[in-house]
What does this fold into?
Amino acid sequence: MKRERYNVVVLGDSLGDGTWAGLYHVLRKDKRFNVIKKSKVATGFSRHDYYDWNQAVREIAAETRIDIAIVVMGTNDRQAIVENGQRHALFDDNWRAVYKQRVDDFTTTLKNTGAQIYWLELPVMRSPRFGGDMEQFNEIFEERARLNNITFVQTDGLATGADGGYTAYGEDRFGRTRLLRAEDGIHFTMAGYELLGERIADAMLADLDGAAVAVTPPGSPEAVVLKGSDTPAEEPEKAVNYDMADRRPGRSDDWLWLGATN
It folds into this structure.
């Protein structure tokens, strides 16, 4: 797949929103890439009644050519699945079977567009309980990526301490110590999202031509307006929590719905 210009479409939840912003920052000097946000907060694969990603990706593909797809999913999926009138509890055998099928259906739909797919591993979380659940999602995503022959982009070593665990502060992509995580222990600051974006960009560019990422020097005064956004990018140190604006009790974007995560 060689083009002069690639549409890089980011699909997923609120972590996808931030990853889109970080990837845009990382690639903004490389004119080959048009980074497009098609993520939607408070969504996932568990609640087809609320938002069906398999249908959504068909609609997105009908209006936007997808050359490269970035997928960031899972943080809203810690809930039961209702399929054909049957309720399946989180992580039980039937739940896993339905969830894996939904991941496969979504992947197949994307592959049918001709897109090269990069599925991002969910990063380390502050809450052991929440993080443990995200590890189970990662196991599913990595398995399905392998079986579906798509790229699983690992996040090991990103925004983590010396022991590989959660840390709020760490080195940004320019080697400066910065605040990397948001107050909820789930999301990131822009400096953190740039680390995720850089990891994805490295994988993309290695597959395309082995080219290095064209980075913007630290302290660059250049204003940035992101594709699909009417407002400038957040300041690097601002901890953005995208889901909280539309949080509803009992739904997956309410981080308290399974009890406190800290």
Notes: Helices lie at 14-27, 53-63, 93-112, 128-147, 190-208.
